Amino acid sequence: MDALSRRTLLKGLSAAAVAGAAGSALGCSAKTTTGTSGRIGADILPTFAQAGKAEPALKSASPLGMSGYFEYPANPVASVSKPPLSGGQISALTYTFDPVAPGKSDNPLWQEVDKRLGGKLDITYAPAADYAQRFATTVAGGDLPDVVSIYGSVQQLPALLKAKFTDLTEYLSGDAVKDYPNLAGLSTDAWRKTVYGNALWGVPIARVPIPSVAWIRADLVAGTGLPAQPKNIGEFKALLKGLTNERKSRWACGDPGSTLTMIAASLGIPGSWKEDGGKFTSNIELEEYEKALADTRELADAGVFHPDGLVASNNQRNDWFTNGTTPIVFGGYAGWSKYEMWGAEVPGFKLGSLPMFGYDAASKPVHPRGSAAQAFTAVTQADPDRVREVLRVLDWLAAPFGSSEYLLRNFGIEGQTFTFEGKDPIVNSRGQNLRLVPFGYVSGPTLAIYDPGRRDVAQARFDYQEAALPILAPDPTQGLYSETDAAKGLQLGKDLTDTRNGILAGRAPVSSWKAAVTKWRNGGGDKIRAEFEQAFSEAGPK
């Protein structure tokens, strides 16, 4: 399709308005994610070259891992020799997970970014939960900014990219990316997120593909005799039951769905699909999944979950964790430092994490897999000189840890938003607000593990990463696209989640799961499967 009407765009894009980046709560709605399959875009991917010169204190054994640092390098210098703009302006549309930052006129950090860019960077953004609707309206209106974040599930995405955005293959493929050395430092797997029709359509927002962690209040487990680091399903159940004391208004955790995911992972169940000889099976179709569901129902019947756990927001669950109501919570790996910050004023607070465990001695656990790219930034169609100018700005924003650009974007201006304590830039309360401008969701470097003044936190984050990456769940859909999944995956996933919640709440038997899976297959699941199998075949051999 060479042209997309306004009505088609609004209809197709609005359906994804609440899809977000994570797909369904059950992980059965496969995403266009990235991974290590090596199948997607292998002949056009940018040539990787390490960006920056900062020597890490902790170096990952995996190409997907982040390096760890205990201090910021002294006398940081710019990674880009001259400003990428010559008085011009770049406009961007993106998303954020944070509160709204002070506007440019009241934000000296943003003003300094403009100064060092040599022009103006104007960013329009929306909360991540609302971004798909803003994206749909903007694209359908036709007046596009210079760069646009492609985040979450989008219908007719390949056609939309071709109609509205720039094929960046000639600018970034292979050694061409060397013109943008900071972009060359993004992981190869992250770039696969941008490949459609064997062409590169954007710059990835690279991430380590660890989506979540099971946090535990180590201080509340200490001295109880409970297995704080369970090694099998029996010890895991004993931990949750032992932490629960309804008379004291304490329940082990507040999220039955994430507990189900953890038990499924202990059985080696993949995050979404299993592939064998080119044939795909969804995780929800496996007998092991129903077994994990039965175990979670057993825990629900034992009362280990907060009574409002199925309907609570993430913020509520985090509050329960911090105040000790639920000593276990499932949260984003990237939010490790936030949990430490929230607990800083709680007497005796000590953050711990639960490792992935095998269901029994014969089981090989997996760790749930995230995406190596949270989103990607597409460049609106323009003449080649303008495209190169835009890419230079994206390259500047991707300056790596240790550079002066990174220091500015993440910590601000010395004396105004942060002060150095030794070699650590410690942000003040004003800086915490000013630095909320979502530069990193327009373009950013490969993330680094660094917690100013907290070497213990950096070490804990790194250790968890190194244990998780070797056992990441396989996902053969990574880098593949299914139009049916983009159009119907959200609703199909909601139907399954409703059935799952009914089982966990005791309103339906575990045996009702089979009927829900049949409904999913007939409603579009089998078509999604067929589209992924075809895309997998067309991607060619590894």
UniProtKB/TrEMBL annotation:
What keyword terms does UniProt attach to this protein? Answer: Signal
The signal peptide here is 1-30
Superkingdom as given in the UniProt entry: Bacteria
Q: Which Pfam families match?
A: SBP_bac_1
Name of the protein in its database record: Extracellular solute-binding protein
**Which organism is this entry from?**
Kribbella speibonae
